[in-house]
Specification:
The structure is a single chain. The chain is globular. It is an alpha+beta fold. It is built from 7 helices and 9 strands; from the N terminus they run αααββββαββαββαβα. It has one domain.
Length: 197
C-alpha cells in the first residue's frame, strides 16, 4: 500500500520539483492541506501495519503519543516526527524533529546525511546515528531540544513509517500538534537551547 507521503513524494518528483525552489514549496503547501486534518492523518496511520515494537533504528516515523506526566510538562507534541536512536525494554530514544523550526530542521537533516547508509542503487536506507555521536559532535547541536524518550504504552496509534525518499517532504509538513504552547514558543525555546550549547 502506498502511503500519502509516498504519493506526495512521487508526484513531486514526477512534476520535476526540487525542495529548495520557491515553486516547490508552494506546490507542497497546496498538497498538504488534507494532512492538516488529524482525522485524515489518523486514517493514514490506521492503514499501516507496523506496530510500536517495530521501530527500526535510523528510520523516521509519525505516531500519536500521550506522554506520561503530561500535566507536569510545559508542552509536548501529540503527533511527533521521530528519528529512532535507541530501543529500550519499555520504549525508545528518539529525535522529534518537530521541535525545530523548519529552517533548522532542513539544515539538521542535511548534516545527518553524513551518517546515511546506502541501499540498492545508492539510495538512502537509514541513518546510522547514535546518541553518543550526537553528544560528541559540535556540528549537531540541533539535536538537544529534539531528544525525547517515548514509552511504548503511551504510543496511541500504529506507526506511519516515512521512507527515505519521503523525508524531504515529511520534514516540511506542518502537522505538529503541540499542547501547552504555540509552535512559535516551542521553536523559540529550541533555538535558545541550541545557541546556549
Amino acid at each position: 500500500m502506498t502511503s500519502k507521503l509516498t504519493e506526495l513524494a512521487q508526484e513531486r518528483k514526477a512534476e520535476g520539483h526540487k525542495m529548495s525552489s520557491r515553486e516547490a514549496y508552494q506546490w507542497l503547501l497546496t498538497k498538504i492541506s488534507a494532512l492538516r486534518n488529524p482525522s485524515v492523518i489518523a486514517r493514514t496511520i490506521q492503514d499501516e501495519e507496523l506496530r510500536p515494537g517495530r521501530f527500526k533504528l535510523g528510520q523516521l516515523y509519525y505516531f500519536y503519543y500521550d506522554p506520561k506526566g503530561k500535566d507536569d510538562l510545559p508542552y509536548y507534541d501529540r503527533f511527533p516526527l521521530v528519528l529512532t536512536l535507541e530501543k529500550y525494554q519499555d520504549g525508545f530514544l528518539e529525535l522529534n524533529l518537530h521541535y525545530l523550526p523548519i529552517k533548522y530542521r532542513v539544515a539538521f537533516i542535511g548534516k545527518l546525511m553524513q551518517y546515511a547508509v546506502p541501499g540498492k542503487d545508492d539510495e538512502i536506507k537509514r541513518l546510522r546515528v547514535t546518541y553518543d555521536i550526537l553528544v560528541a559532535s559540535k556540528r549537531l547541536r540541533e539535536f538537544r531540544p529534539c531528544i525525547k524518550r517515548y514509552l511504548t504504552p503511551h504510543i496511541k496509534s500504529k506507526l506511519l513509517a516515512v521512507q527515505p525518499d519521503e523525508w524531504d517532504t515529511a520534514i516540511m509538513l506542518p502537522v505538529h500538534q503541540f499542547k501547552g504552547a504555540k509552535p512559535e514558543t516551542v521553536w523559540k525555546d529550541s533555538v535558545e537551547e541550541i545557541k546556549r550549547t
